[in-house]
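Run log // design_07
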């Protein structure tokens, strides 16, 4: 259904000064509340905002994502048209969206894709009782497609080989310091930095955020070719992954985590993960020590839909008992 659009006003963008260091956006003038644009869209299927948009949230303190007590989901994005803020709420089965900033129209036009309109869950056939049970209990699961690559690639790089708490902390600190206040009425939301701003973050700021040189260097290589990487959002998932993996430091784990969100890739199962193979192995075969090869063998009946199958397995809550200590925190001062 076509949405109703009302005028919006432009918002202030972050500026970068100096040849060696990025200027923190916190020092900039806060974004003014602008007029909003709105759209109402009714999907022809049950919709669960938490299941669909939850993978975009990088921890409870994500400065670019928030869920308010009324159930609304707020996202601050750097779109091809500029910074934008999107609020989505469910009302009587319809998605009611409101957006602010230069990227408002882009966000509203992409609302159906964001909520899973390009996803086709009818292609998925459960092959295990556990998966079938979860599939019936979660009819509102759709795979989101943001159409934005860097906003998923950079936090995925930050999550390489560290605990999620460390990665979420780094994301939170860097986006708050070098991003810009999101347009619209959402207080304390920040739009992620521009590619040039990421490239100008000094080495000591990466260190303060707990990001080692390997991950920081990978991000710097990625943002130098940001435009080419963003083109991957329009590619088939395997082609998109191949383009991302041309960046040294971006491997199968990182590319899968990215295209799951940017491209809505139903088959981009995450390999190289510390926990997922054991969870899949335990849920489907009672194997607490499954590796990537065993996981892929178990997921083979879901070819073309392996990421979706993994999502249902994770949602089932059937996980192996912990037998080893948690992954230790990394002290980059000793690296």
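design_07 sequence
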């Amino acid at each position: 259904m076509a949405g109703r659009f009302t005028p919006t006003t432009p918002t202030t963008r972050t500026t970068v000064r100096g040849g060696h260091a990025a200027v923190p956006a916190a020092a900039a003038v806060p974004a003014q509340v602008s007029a909003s644009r709105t759209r109402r869209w009714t999907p022809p299927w049950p919709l669960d905002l938490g299941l669909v948009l939850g993978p975009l949230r990088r921890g409870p303190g994500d400065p670019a994502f928030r869920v308010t007590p009324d159930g609304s989901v707020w996202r601050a994005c750097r779109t091809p048209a500029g910074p934008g803020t999107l609020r989505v709420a469910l009302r009587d089965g319809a998605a009611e969206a409101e957006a602010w900033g230069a990227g408002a129209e882009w966000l509203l036009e992409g609302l159906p894709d964001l909520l899973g309109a390009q996803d086709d869950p009818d292609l998925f056939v459960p092959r295990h009782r556990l998966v079938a049970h979860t599939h019936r209990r979660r009819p509102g699961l759709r795979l989101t497609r943001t159409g934005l690559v860097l906003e998923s690639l950079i936090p995925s790089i930050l999550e390489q080989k560290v605990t999620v708490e460390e990665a979420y902390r780094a994301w939170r600190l860097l986006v708050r310091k070098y991003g810009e206040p999101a347009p619209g009425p959402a207080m304390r939301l920040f739009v992620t930095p521009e590619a040039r701003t990421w490239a100008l973050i000094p080495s000591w700021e990466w260190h303060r955020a707990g990001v080692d040189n390997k991950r920081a260097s990978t991000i710097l290589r990625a943002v130098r070719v940001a435009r080419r990487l963003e083109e991957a959002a329009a590619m088939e998932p395997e082609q998109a992954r191949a383009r991302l993996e041309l960046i040294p430091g971006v491997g199968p784990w990182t590319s899968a985590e990215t295209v799951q969100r940017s491209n809505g890739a139903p088959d981009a199962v995450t390999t190289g993960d510390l926990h997922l193979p054991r969870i899949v192995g335990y849920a489907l075969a009672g194997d607490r020590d499954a590796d990537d090869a065993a996981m892929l063998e178990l997921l083979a009946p879901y070819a073309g839909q392996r990421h979706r199958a993994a999502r249902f397995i994770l949602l089932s809550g059937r996980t192996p008992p912990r037998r080893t200590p948690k992954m230790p925190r990394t002290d980059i001062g000793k690296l």
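DSSP finds 15 helices and seven strands in the chain.
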